[in-house]
Predict the structure.
Amino acid sequence: MQTDIIIIGSGFAAKITGLTLALKGFEVLMIPNRINGNTASNLVTFLSSGSIKFLKNILDNSSVLESYESMIQIHCSPEEELKNRSPNLYFKNDGGKILGRIIPNTKIEELLDQKINTLQNIQILKDEEVDTLKLHENKIEIKTRSSLLYEAKLFIAADGKNSIIKNFTNIEFVQYDFHQTAISIIADIDRKEKNTAYQFFMTDGPLALLPCNSTQSAIVWSLKNKSEILLLNQKQLELKLSEIFEPFVSKMKIINQQKFNLSFSFGKKLFSTRSALVGDTAHSIHPIAGQGLNLIIKDIDCLSSLLKKYQRLGYDIGDQIILEEYNNLRKIDNTAYAFGTLAIEELFSMENNFVRSLTSSALKLFNQSDRIKRSIIHNATGEHYFNNL
């Protein structure tokens, strides 16, 4: 079977990529490359205002995204300043514009699946796994374990940080084990201030309190593997968090919780022969800044726009010039966030009291620079990036 583009993967990156390219008129074949379906998770995602704008352009029921609480400001404080209601550092957009929304992963996936199922030019090859991948100068060939053969002009790897692309190309990756476990929690919470997210830099690891709606919030605590907090049962953890959040929360009750191991993976380039990387395959970063999916959406928008532009000019969509331009356009942004969040996490997780005192003072000093904060906000929300939508 021949098609324009083959995408490997089953998560957000693969589905958003496939949907975006199909809407631009390409014939797309998606291979989840897994027999069993995804395990249901309670994870949530911060969608910046720019990413929401992008998704509204490709989804039918995009108004659902706006049913979740808008995030107007973010408060950041080190553990030592928790009792102080005034944050060391806060971000707030100009003119009361929202920074973004916290949306359950299951809801985003549901909306993507609904739209994908309405399109005729996107096929999902379920219950198949890739056996071989051959990257030729004029085409790519994929053979499945049931001996089905597929050909395309372009291959896109969107199957996560353990992607099969590592077995078939010479792309080098920077990899790092954070030695951390993230506890993802959904809780009924009565917050004292609405439309506000909180990021606390604890010695055990960064802790985020994220508003979903008027009654529920998500909590993500990225803990060092040696942390005794990982040994707490649900009731003990609830009491611990209630104590930490006391200045900001009237009451809370954990609904459910899950744990995930954290690691870092970063592709030194985003392409090889007739192949491109998107999503966690390209950059799996620390969740401390909440920019994972927003970076992915920027990658997808960039790649899909380039493919359509060069196709109109008569280029083969697997041409090296397209893939090199994609890599060059996304390199700076991806590198800055990937290694910037890595450095921030390392810095604020230090247990040295002197260093923590210095970083606390630095946050307060940084908070006084409206110009720098405004630049960070514009980049993080994607306001400039998606201003043509």
About this structure: DSSP finds nine helices and 20 strands in the chain. The chain has a mean pLDDT of 88.
